[in-house]
């Protein structure tokens, strides 16, 4: 996580004329940018996904999650409501990987499950912005999303006894975030940090109700964060 935040800061500093936007009386760029009823753009970014587990019985042995950094890419469609509010649709593609460590096993083959996921996401968000200060403007954003996990293995007949960890294909949740719009000479650059929280249980249980992998899990939900860099 520290490395991702460091990269976030370096990219912000590397943005063309980024520091110049925070001067007391800068030359105003893209003065009509926020007057458009419809606006378009794209984003690139990084993510780190985790799982939140809930258990049927508290036996003191939790599933361990080894997280890694993935990437995001997508498009933006924005509709202006007024000076401070916009509705945004941000469909995108996301890749992430997690390793799960299950307790109670002596063999690594049984204890470790690698979960690679490719999500197609469809977030519908409300963006609330502050008043523009020179060439920058802070904002917060939040909304709901639905996504399809292309690596879910939901239709597989095999389960963990055969080395197959299965998840549900469709996921629903919400996301919250904050960021800054920076108005450069040629485009609007918007770094932001987002928190993502699934509302639905994503786990498909093993065929055996007493499975040592899934028998004690009451719910498994994705949570994570994004660092996105938007260009409009």
Tell me what the structure shows.
This is Probable protein-translocating porin PorT. It comes from Flagellimonas pacifica. Keywords: Signal. Pfam families: OMP_b-brl_2. InterPro entries: Beta-barrel_OMP_2. The structure is a single chain. The protein is mainly beta and 232 residues long. The chain has one domain: Porin, CATH 2.40.160. Helices cover 7% and strands 52% of the residues. The protein has two helices and ten strands. The chain has helices spanning 2-14, 108-111; strands spanning 38-55, 64-67, 69-80, 85-89, 92-101, 112-129, 136-149, 170-183, 188-198, 217-231. Strands 1, 2, 3, 4, 5, 6, 7, 8, 9 and 10 form a ten-stranded antiparallel beta sheet that branches. A hairpin with a 4-residue loop joins strand 8 (170-183) and strand 9. The longest helix has 13 residues, at 2-14. It is elongated, with a radius of gyration of 21 Å. The two termini are 27 Å apart. 25% of the residues are buried. The model has no long low-confidence stretch (mean pLDDT 89).
Write the layout of secondary structure elements.
Blueprint lengths: L1 H13 L23 E18 L8 E4 L1 E12 L4 E5 L2 E10 L6 H4 E18 L6 E14 L20 E14 L4 E11 L18 E15 L1
Our estimate of the beta-strand percent is over 45%
Coarse structural class:
mainly beta
For this structure, the CATH topology is: Porin
**Rg (C-alpha, Å):** 21 Å
Mean pLDDT, to the nearest integer, reads: 89
- Helix share bin: under 10%
Strand segment tally: 10
Largest sheet: 10 strands, antiparallel
Large-scale geometry: elongated
Euclidean distance between termini CA atoms: 27 Å
**Can you write the helix and strand succession as a string?**
HEEEEEHEEEEE
Label the CATH architecture. Answer: Beta Barrel
| Low-confidence residue ranges | none
Name of the CATH class: Mainly Beta
How many alpha or pi helices? 2
Domain tally: 1
Organism: Flagellimonas pacifica
Protein name: Probable protein-translocating porin PorT
InterPro entries: Beta-barrel_OMP_2
Keywords: Signal
């Amino acid at each position: 996580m520290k490395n991702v935040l460091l990269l976030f800061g370096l990219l912000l500093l590397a943005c063309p004329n980024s520091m110049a936007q925070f001067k007391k009386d800068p030359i105003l760029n893209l003065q009509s940018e926020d007057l458009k009823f419809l606006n378009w753009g794209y984003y690139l970014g990084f993510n780190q996904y985790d799982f939140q587990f809930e258990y049927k019985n508290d036996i003191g042995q939790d599933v361990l999650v080894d997280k890694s950094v993935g990437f995001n890419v997508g498009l933006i469609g924005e509709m202006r409501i007024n000076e401070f509010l916009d509705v945004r649709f941000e469909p995108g593609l996301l890749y992430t990987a997690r390793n799960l460590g299950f307790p109670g096993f002596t063999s690594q083959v049984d204890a470790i499950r690698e979960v690679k996921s490719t999500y197609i996401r469809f977030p519908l968000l409300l963006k609330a912005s502050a008043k523009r200060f020179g060439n920058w403007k802070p904002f917060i954003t939040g909304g709901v999303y639905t996504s399809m996990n292309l690596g879910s293995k939901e239709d597989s007949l095999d389960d963990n006894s055969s080395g197959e960890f299965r998840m549900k294909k469709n996921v629903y949740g919400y996301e919250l975030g904050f960021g800054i719009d920076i108005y450069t000479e040629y485009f609007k650059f918007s770094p932001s940090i987002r928190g993502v929280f699934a509302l639905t249980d994503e786990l498909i249980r093993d065929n055996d109700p007493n499975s040592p992998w899934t028998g004690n899990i009451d719910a498994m939900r994705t949570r994570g964060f994004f660092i996105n860099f938007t260009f409009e």
